[in-house]
């Protein structure tokens, strides 16, 4: 295995935090495997990153679909590529009251945010442990630290991801493999558009973080082998205070932040 070129595999790699992470890896001369749905965007992103003098492999697939995460692993294995770093960035939310949202869409969110992430982590992690080296960055969220009215399923999935990260990290001590949990706050990406959340107060009235800054925080924590990083001072304070605040109170606070600017729209 050691004679093979080493690669970092990044899901959700054509926009937002995933794209900014890909840029950081390329600037540090890391070869890349980029995974995303849109083949045209993948190809354009690959061409941009190749300018840094790195090799870029693209895999166009929809991780909302069960079985596609396994297929990503099989494609990488068939190419005999050595994945030294795995970044599970792909994730999505859906906005609205739980009773109003479509069940199928919420189940798709669970498939993407949890099932695909767990699958890719499981498969690539086994290879890393057998080699005795590797790093994984799983993107959670400060949303996972508090119940989230109007995004109940999304917050729940991110709570799972962070808890999962911390658990397997403990299991992996002394293996040479580390798992890092990245917890961004609200970030200026296409997330809110895809979640149909543009009318929420957090978007209309809040401050959205720069995805490049979030990516840098995650990248540095990953390379340092840290267990987790909360990106942004305000988010660090929010998480610290949340550890002392009852869940019911956090839910009420989050409802005020995430409700629509016109509350009649989601009532």
From TrEMBL:
Pfam family membership, one: adh_short
GO molecular function: oxidoreductase activity
Domain of life where this protein originates: Bacteria
Entry keyword annotation includes Oxidoreductase: yes
SUPFAM superfamilies cross-referenced by the UniProt entry: NAD(P)-binding Rossmann-fold domains
Keyword Transcription regulation: no
InterPro entries in the record: NAD(P)-bd_dom_sf, SDR_fam
Sorted UniProt keywords: Oxidoreductase
Family the UniProt entry places it in: Belongs to the short-chain dehydrogenases/reductases (SDR) family.
Designated name of the protein: SDR family oxidoreductase
């Amino acid at each position: 295995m050691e004679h093979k070129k080493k690669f970092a595999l990044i899901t959700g790699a054509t926009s937002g935090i995933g794209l900014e992470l890909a840029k950081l890896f390329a600037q540090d001369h890391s070869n890349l495997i980029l995974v995303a749905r849109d083949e045209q965007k993948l190809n354009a992103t690959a061409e941009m990153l190749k300018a840094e003098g790195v090799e870029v492999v693209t895999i166009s697939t929809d991780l909302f679909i069960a079985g596609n995460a396994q297929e990503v692993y099989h494609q990488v294995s068939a190419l005999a590529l050595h994945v030294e770093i795995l970044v599970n960035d792909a994730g999505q939310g859906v906005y609205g009251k739980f009773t109003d949202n479509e069940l199928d869409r919420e189940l798709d969110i669970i498939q993407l945010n949890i099932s695909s992430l767990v699958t890719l982590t499981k498969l690539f992690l086994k290879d890393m442990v057998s080699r005795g080296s590797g790093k994984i960055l799983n993107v959670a969220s400060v949303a996972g630290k508090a119940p989230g009215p109007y995004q109940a399923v999304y917050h729940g999935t991110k709570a799972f991801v962070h808890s999962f990260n911390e658990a397997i990290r403990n299991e992996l001590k002394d293996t040479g493999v580390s798992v890092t949990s990245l917890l961004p706050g609200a970030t200026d990406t296409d997330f809110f558009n895809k979640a149909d959340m543009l009318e929420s107060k957090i978007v209309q009235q809040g401050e959205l973080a720069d995805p490049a800054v979030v990516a840098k925080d995650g990248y540095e924590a990953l390379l340092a082998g840290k267990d987790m990083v909360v990106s942004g001072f305000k988010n660090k304070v929010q998480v610290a205070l949340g550890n002392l605040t009852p869940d019911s109170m956090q839910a009420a606070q989050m409802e005020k932040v995430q409700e629509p600017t016109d509350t009649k729209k989601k009532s």
